[in-house]
Amino acid sequence: EDQVTQSPEALRLQEGESSSLNCSYTVSGLRGLFWYRQDPGKGPEFLFTLYSAGEEKEKERLKATLTKKESFLHITAPKPEDSATYLCAGTYGKLTFGQGTILTVHP
Amino acid sequence: DTAVSQTPKYLVTQMGNDKSIKCEQNLGHDTMYWYKQDSKKFLKIMFSYNNKELIINETVPNRFSPKSPDKAHLNLHINSLELGDSAVYFCASSTPLDNSGANVLTFGAGSRLTVL
């Protein structure tokens, strides 16, 4: 069964304290790796798609990278407004989501 | 100018009742989905329609029946509601699924269903 596993489940950072979220996935048949952001009471919002190992994409303080076995979402100098649940998803013909990492950034 | 809109946002009902959730998208997408997010935040696909045709039907009880009157609308009807149906249901839409399956989904805000 296709699997996407995220770690940690929750991450608490001080404002400005950089860190990374991890997403490991079933390698066979992966056609794309997605990152979404979900705010409380809202639907997930698309951030990045990565297709091949070595690929990197950036948006403001976020950078997503992909290796052959996992993806990382790096957050540089986070701000309180970056607090959200970050979801990773692999597509094997349909999207399989991980359970998410709840990020809290304290001022 | 909401892209994907769902109604109602909140739904509280008794076990055994029948309820519906409606979804509309104004993005011009051909493909629409229903996802279920449980209390542990896992998002799982339930159904997908492409231009009114069912293309993905996961292992979902027969009590759940999607209906797509046109490609901009996908409704979800649930019969004989059970306690375990309590969850947040998300509608989403995307450009047509191609062989890569790598289509960006635009989600609605969700409909929180509570079954008492």
Question: What does this molecule look like?
Answer:
The complex is a heterodimer of chains A (107) and B (116). Chain A has a single domain, classed as Sandwich (Immunoglobulin-like), CATH 2.60.40. Helix content of chain A is 0%, strand content 57%. Chain A has strands at residues 4-7, 10-14, 19-25, 32-38, 45-50, 56-59, 62-66, 70-75, 84-91, 95-97, 101-106. In chain A, the strands form 2 sheets. In chain A, strands 2, 4, 5, 9, 10 and 11 form a 6-stranded mixed sheet that branches. Chain A starts with a strand and ends with a strand. Chain B contains no helices and 11 strands. Chain B is globular, with a radius of gyration of 13 Å. Chain B starts with a strand and ends with a strand.
Provide a brief overview of the structure.
The complex is a heterodimer of chains A (107) and B (116). Chain A has 107 residues and is mostly beta strands.
Give the class of chain A from helix and strand content and strand pairing.
mainly beta
Helix fraction of chain B by DSSP (H/I, runs of at least 4): under 10%
What does the overall shape of chain A look like? Answer: globular
* Poorly predicted tracts of residues of chain B: none
Total E-strand runs of chain B: 11
**What's the overall geometry of chain B?**
globular
Oligomer: heterodimer
Mean pLDDT figure of chain A: 93
Mean pLDDT of chain B: 91
Number of strands of chain A: 11
Output the CATH topology of chain A.
Immunoglobulin-like
Question: Number of domains in the coordinates of chain A?
Answer: 1
User: How many angstroms does the end-to-end distance of chain A come to?
Assistant: 41 Å
Label the CATH architecture of chain B: Sandwich
Strand content of chain B: over 45%
Which terms would index this structure?
A: 107 residues, mainly beta, Immunoglobulin-like, five-stranded antiparallel sheet, B: mainly beta, seven-stranded mixed sheet, four-stranded antiparallel sheet
Q: What is the fold's blueprint, element by element?
A:
The complex is a heterodimer of chains A (107) and B (116).
Chain A: E1 4-7, E2 10-14, E3 19-25, E4 32-38, E5 45-50, E6 56-59, E7 62-66, E8 70-75, E9 84-91, E10 95-97, E11 101-106
Parallel strand pairs in A: 2-11
Antiparallel strand pairs in A: 1-3, 3-8, 4-5, 4-9, 6-7, 7-8, 9-10, 9-11
Chain B: E1 4-7, E2 10-13, E3 19-25, E4 31-37, E5 43-50, E6 53-57, E7 64-70, E8 73-78, E9 87-94, E10 106-107, E11 111-115
Parallel strand pairs in B: 2-11
Antiparallel strand pairs in B: 1-3, 3-8, 4-5, 4-9, 5-6, 7-8, 9-10, 9-11
